[in-house]
Each structure stands twice: as structure tokens, then as C-alpha cells.
Design brief:
Number of domains: 2
Order of helices and strands: EEEHEEEEHEEHHH
CATH superfamily of the largest domain: Acid Proteases
CATH architecture of the largest domain: Beta Barrel
Largest sheet: 6 strands, mixed, barrel
Strand order of the largest sheet: 1-2-7-3-6-5
Number of helices: 5
CATH topology of the largest domain: Cathepsin D, subunit A, domain 1
Distance between the termini: 110 Å
């Protein structure tokens, strides 16, 4: 839908009538750069360039928005001051997008094409700057990106749980294997001890096992300290080297 509006240059207070397109799919107010130059509008450089995309989601081939222009807009007794972005390669001279429609909320008769400015805000004559919204394409891309991030997070959590489960299973098997080894070793140690220890001492066969020999003796009430004389200084004893035959004899003695 199009409407005829008046655009007034702020610096010269000269106006021109144009056919403006009302487009709820546009995320801002835009003016053709060719039209702006032809009419001599004073452009104002933006501090930061603003990329724009076409309806198909591709970046505009004319490049980002670099400038804006401040104008007075007139329509059926309605007057307002605002800023319009300058874009090259536009078919329409001026496009009034969703920010303008949302700000004024006009009554539109789609059959007759009549647009009534009956619901404008009280401060409509004051200057206002349209805020660039997000297009449907950008919203869709954001939604897809969030969904993809959520899927990746779920996949990471699933793999983490799966890895943790495998580690727990390996740990459980290792513990069971260790217990089985200990039990087997204890049984073998007990069998070997029975062969070496006289039968009358089998009642205490447990203390002759290998496992029992590898731990410190249990503290008893009759344990006593070995007191040394006052002023005693312990000295390291000399280690006498043994020949190979002597070491074998010592080892056999200990095992016996």
C-alpha cells in the first residue's frame, strides 16, 4: 500500500510530495540515496555502519547504511520530525516500515486504501528516531541458532553422562576384579601356609598368611617402650656388602 506524503528539508524548509510505501516487513524508515541527492537533502553520517538484508536474507548489494537524513513528514494534517536512513538501489523513493506503523498505529482500510492517523501518540509532533528492529529472516536465524545451540548442549550432556557411565562401569569392574584377586590370593596364601605350618597351629593359620604379614601388628595393652639412656645418640650402622651366594643364603633363611 502507498500513501502520498510531504517531505520537508529542515535546513531549507522546502518540501516535495512523494509516493511512500507502507511496508510492515521493513525494519526501518528508508529513503533512496538517488532521490536524496537529487532533492538536495543534507545527509548526516552515522557513527557506526549498519548492515541490512533483503527479503531473501542476503546482504544488500549496495552495502550498509552509512547516512541518515532528518526531515519533517506531512500527511493529512499530521506532522512529525524524524530521521530516515539512506539506502542505495531502492525501487521506492521512501519506505515507511514497521517502526513508523507501530509508532502511529494508523487505521487502514484495505479495501479503499484509506489510511487515517487517528491513533497517533500525543507527542507525535515531537522528533523521534525509529529504532531498527529485526527482520523475520533475522529472527528465524536467531531461533535456529538457539535451537542448534540447545541441541549441541544436549548432545554434550548426553556424551558426558555416557562417558561417566562407562567410567563408573570400568571402575566397578576393576574393583570387583581387585576383590576377586585379593580373595584368590588370600585362599592361595592360606593353602600354602597350611602346608608349612604344623596342623596343631592351623587354628591360627590366618596370622601366617601373606596379607597379615604385610601390615603392622595390632597395638596391645602389654606393648611397652624401649627406653634409652639419657644422652644416647643413635648412629647409623655400617652396611656390610654380601656376595651373591651369601644373599641367596639369607633369602632362603628368611623364607624358611
Amino acid at each position: 500500500m502507498t500513501v502520498k506524503i510531504g517531505l520537508e528539508r529542515i535546513d531549507m524548509q522546502e518540501g516535495v510530495t512523494v509516493e511512500a510505501l507502507l511496508d510492515s516487513g521493513a525494519t526501518g524508515l528508508v529513503m533512496s540515496s538517488e532521490f536524496a541527492k537529487k532533492q538536495g537533502f543534507k545527509l548526516k553520517k552515522l557513527e557506526r555502519l549498519m548492515n541490512i538484508r533483503n527479503v531473501n536474507g542476503l546482504l544488500n548489494k549496495e552495502g550498509p547504511i552509512e547516512s541518515t537524513v532528518e526531515v519533517n513528514i506531512y500527511y493529512q494534517g499530521h506532522r512529525e520530525r524524524t530521521e530516515i536512513d539512506i539506502i542505495g538501489g531502492q525501487k521506492w523513493t521512501v519506505i515507511l516500515g514497521m517502526p513508523w506503523l507501530a509508532h502511529h498505529n494508523p487505521e487502514i482500510d484495505w479495501r479503499t486504501g484509506e489510511v487515517k492517523m487517528t491513533r497517533c501518540p500525543e507527542e507525535y509532533e515531537k522528533q523521534w528516531r525509529p529504532v531498527q528492529g529485526k527482520s523475520g529472516w533475522e529472527k528465524q536465524k536467531e531461533k535456529e541458532a538457539k535451537e542448534e545451540t540447545g541441541k549441541k548442549r544436549e548432545e554434550r550432556n548426553r556424551k558426558k553422562k555416557q562417558k561417566k557411565g562407562k567410567m563408573m562401569e570400568v571402575k566397578r569392574i576393576a574393583e570387583e576384579w581387585e576383590i576377586w584377586n585379593e580373595e584368590e590370593e588370600a585362599a592361595r596364601s592360606k593353602a600354602e601356609a597350611k602346608k608349612l605350618v604344623p596342623e596343631k597351629f592351623h587354628k591360627w593359620i590366618k596370622v601366617f598368611g601373606k596379607k597379615q604379614s604385610e601390615r603392622m601388628l595390632t597395638r596391645k595393652v602389654w606393648n611397652h617402650a624401649i627406653d634409652v639412656k639419657e644422652g644416647f645418640i643413635s648412629r647409623k650402622g655400617k652396611v656390610y656388602p654380601l656376595s651373591r651366594e651369601e644373599r641367596e643364603e639369607v633369602r632362603e633363611f628368611i623364607w624358611e
